[in-house]
Amino acid sequence: MRAEREQGITIDVAYRYFATPRRKFIIADTPGHIQYTRNMVTGASSANLSIVLVDARQGIVEQSRRHTCIASLLRIPHLVVAVNKMDLVDWSEARFNEIRQEFEQFLPRLDMKDVKFIPVSALHGDNVVDPSPHTPWYPGPTLLGHLETVHIGSDWNLSDFRLPVQWVNRPNNPTDPALHDFRGFSGQIAGGIVREGQLVMALPSGYLSKVKTIWTLDGPLKEAFCPQSVTLVLEDDIDVSRGDVIVAPANLPGTGTDLHAKICWLHPRPLTPGRKYHLKHLTQTVPVAVTSIDYRIDISTFDPQPGVDSLAMNDVGAIRLRAARPLLYDGFAANRQTGSFILIEQGSNATVGAGMLFPSTKLAQPEYKDFAI
Prior knowledge:
CATH architecture of the largest domain: 3-Layer(aba) Sandwich
Number of helices: 6
Number of strands: 22
CATH class of the largest domain: Alpha Beta
Number of domains: 3
Helix content: 10-25%
Largest sheet: 8 strands, antiparallel
Structural class: mainly beta
C-alpha cells in the first residue's frame, strides 16, 4: 500500500501463498503498530503458528510483547521467535541467549507451551531455508524446516463432535430415485470425528438419531473429522434446520443467554454498556445487548485494567452480553470455532468486534428426548 510505503509500517494484512514438497502454507503479514491491533487480530484469528520477528540489535520491544500476548489471547498453539539480523551482532550466541532469556521471563504468564527460538539473517537467508555456517552453536532446525515439520494435527478439537448446520440439503430430483427423497444436513465440522452408525443429537431439540451416510463433494466417507465440509444423512427424519448443531450426546456443549467473553473492538465508535448488536456465532445470528465491561487488557503487559466504562478501537477487554435466545457454544480455549463470534452493528451491518467466549457452566441438557432409536 502507498500509505505503508510512506510511513514505513504495515497497516493492512497481506496474504501470501506458497508450497513445498511437504506442506502448503498461507502467510498472513500482520501490522505491529498498536493502532492496527484489530488488523493483527483478524490475520491471526485462524492461524496455526505465529512468527514473532525480533531485531537482534534492539532486542525485545513493546511490539514483540504485544504480538506474543495477542497470539496467546487467540490461542495460537505454536510460536516461533525468529531473532533476525544476527549478522549485525556478529552472530553472537550470547546475544541470542540474552533475548531468549528475556522472552522466557514472561512466557509462563501467557500459557504458551510450544515455543521455538531460531537465529536468522534474512539478508542472505541464513537459517531461513538452509542451515547457516555462521551459527555452529545452534543445533536446531531452520525456519522453513520447523514450519514443515511442526505437528498441527492435534491443534483441532477431535474429541467433541460439532456440526453447525448451514443448509438442509434437499435436491428433490425426480429423475434420480436416489435424490428424490434425499435429505441431508450440510456444514463444516467444527470439532470432533463422526462415523457411519454413530449416535448423534440435534440441538436445541434434543432429538437422537444415527448417522446413515456421510457425503462429501468427492463421494461418501466412512468417517469425517474437523474441519471437513460434509453432508450428514440420518436414519430418522427429524426436524433440523439452519442454526441447529449436531453433536455427540456424550460430549454436550455449553448453553446460555448470559455470555462472558474477551473481545477485540474494531470500530471507531467505542463499545459501551447498554448498546445492542447482532452476534454472529457459527451459522446463526442473535440479537444481544452489552450488559457490562469487566476490564480492559493492557496488551503490552497482559494485565487487566478494571473500572473502565468503554472500549475504544483496538482495545481488548472482557465483557458480558445477554442474548435474545440461548447459544450453544464451547469455551474458546477448548474449540476456536464454536467459541468465537463477531458483533455486527445494527443498521450499518459493520463488523465492530471479534470475541472469544469463556466456557459456560451449564451444559446443553435438552428438556425432552422423545425420539426413539
